[in-house]
Amino acid sequence: MKVLIIGLGSIAKKHIIALRKYDPKIELYALRSSKTSAAQDDVINIYSLDEVEQVSFAIVSNPTAAHADTIVMLVDKGVPMFIEKPLFSSLDHQELVARVKRLNIKTYVACNLRFLEAIQFIKTHIAAKRINEVNVYCGSYLPDWRPRLDYRTVYSANKEMGGGVHIDLIHEIDYVYWLFGKPIGVKKHFSNVSSLNISAFDYANYLLSYPTFNVNVQLNYYRRDPKRSLEIVCENGTFFIDLLHNKVLWREEVVFEASSRIADTYYTQMEFFINNILNGNVYFNDINEAYEILTLCLED
Fold first, then answer.
1. Which end of the chain is more exposed for a tag (fewer CB within 10 A), N or C?
2. 0.70 surpassed by pTM
3. Residue 158 contacts residue 221 (beta carbons within 8 Å)
4. What is the pLDDT of residues 127-141, one digit of tens each?
5. What CATH number is attached to the domain comprising 165?
6. Where are the beta strands (DSSP E) in the chain?
7. Both 189 and 163 in a single domain?
């Protein structure tokens, strides 16, 4: 199997680890923009798509603002795509999405929280529950994400590169969509007035309306003590899901706990993609679904 990587940053390296675990013999190629780009062990640098043939799929993990041009290039070659979230940084790509669908090119947009066991547990345990309210929170400190880099230079901090907590942490909107379906209404508020002093939004608040309950989603880049949680207030009790510790509580008692962590979902996700999407006929968060979720995040 040959895999092409476009964008060899920190997130791509997580996918490389997952690929090596899946198949140590896999051939990895990175499409680089400059011949001075640093080489990485066991990854072959190329400078044109013509340098490699019969690619099984491509990982699109360059800055979000470059995704559209990259996808156009891969569509022209008919290459299946594993696309790092968020799909795009704007909503002016309907024709490209329609073209991918028309050509039946296999795609998956990477939202790995769907593979966290606590989220999967709660998906199977809320079906019969009467829900009154849902609260989602994700806060962490952007400078801690990549300690060796100046956080102000990375795409997350820069609006012009497609960054911003409102879509950088699209995982939360994605799993809400996966758990509860499409909302009937969306209100939102974004800002960047924290002490981080970046051009991209560092705070986002969404209110998603459903016929019998509302979902409040709060996201930020500036919380020093990380917290990632989901609270589902039901008629006869409350589920509290601690995503960082892969744990579910019901009425303050632990009803599910797993030793794996969010980092482990990168392998589970990659295994699912290769076995069920690439080599099967499963459609799971493909470019069409991901575009619909992006619309919830960005549409006025």
1. C
2. yes
3. no
4. 889 999 999 999 999
5. 3.30.360.10
6. 2-6, 27-31, 43-46, 57-60, 81-84, 107-110, 131-141, 185-191, 203-209, 214-220, 222-234, 237-242, 247-250, 253-257
7. yes
